[in-house]
Amino acid sequence: MTIGNLMRLLSDGEVHSGEQLGGSLGISRAAVWKQLKKLEAMGVELDAVKGRGYRLVQPLTPLDGARIVAHLPAAARRRLARLFVEDTLPSSNEYVRQRFGQGAGHGEVCFVELQTAGRGRRGRVWTTPWGQSLMLSVGWRFDSGVAALEGLSLAVGVVVSQVLEQHGARPQLKWPNDILLATPDGALAKLAGILVEVTGDAAGPCDVVIGMGMNLSLPPAMREAIGQPVAALADACPDIDRNALAADVVAGLLGMLVNFETHGFGAWQAAWNQRHAYAGQAVDVLVGNARSAAVAGEADAGGNLWVCEDGHDRRLAGGEISVRRRL
């Protein structure tokens, strides 16, 4: 019995007795109770209905590999080598990296309902409740060196934003790896993060793993625990089809990847700048413990962000640099 099995039984939002759950899972009612407590500790909100059983406060749609593939257009199916949907993993990026180590990985996509050791840029932890996010990693092998990958994370942001726009959202982009969305109170906050990891020859073939984590819904208690503004797609699109969204993201990313090596970020540069959340605004540039005031400009064809500091233009080239709106 896995947490995933239990979540799929509860996913309809109906009340299920401990006896029913135990019978379906082949465990005792006491064991069911322990698993339900684990779910609550993981941020899943449960409603205990006296004398009847338990239900999810927020019904969810589990990811389904067959439904995702069925929703893909023909071109994306041809580019997709293999699709995995896992209940729990330490990290979907690590899973795809291991696939490369086994001689596979290229054109493979891994979705995961819950990551136990997921991380974002600069080692930050990325945590969401089971089934209430969209977490995936895509593997792609490039023949050119690392220099040909400049701006790749920004192109990913453009593609995902375009998909979200098709579903009715209006995201904005924060250099270099974040997708922002307005929260219910109007504040612009992080919706999704992107992490691109590269291994291989600096001047030759290299394996790339693109990871993305997006909040689809967030319980109020988890928003409060995060301690800073955070957005969820349900804020703008409450009735989104999770599997259809997953398929659209996969199709968009595979379509971009097959062309990126030839065209570079320049093909997505204008689209990124159109969605740039901080264009022309006062920002703080953070490099380690150092902070400087600047005005944000545009991203260039290499994916670098230009800013103006004390009347002088400066190019930010990623790495351990962060840009935040100046309050």
UniProtKB/TrEMBL annotation:
Keywords: ATP-binding, Biotin, DNA-binding, Ligase, Nucleotide-binding, Repressor, Transcription, Transcription regulation. Residues 18-37 bind DNA. One of its GO terms (biological process) is regulation of DNA-templated transcription. GO terms for cellular component: cytoplasm. Residues 76-261 form the BPL/LPL catalytic domain. Its EC number is 6.3.4.15. It comes from the Bacteria. Acts both as a biotin--[acetyl-CoA-carboxylase] ligase and a biotin-operon repressor. In the presence of ATP, BirA activates biotin to form the BirA-biotinyl-5'-adenylate (BirA-bio-5'-AMP or holoBirA) complex. HoloBirA can either transfer the biotinyl moiety to the biotin carboxyl carrier protein (BCCP) subunit of acetyl-CoA carboxylase, or bind to the biotin operator site and inhibit transcription of the operon. This is Bifunctional ligase/repressor BirA. It comes from Vreelandella subglaciescola.
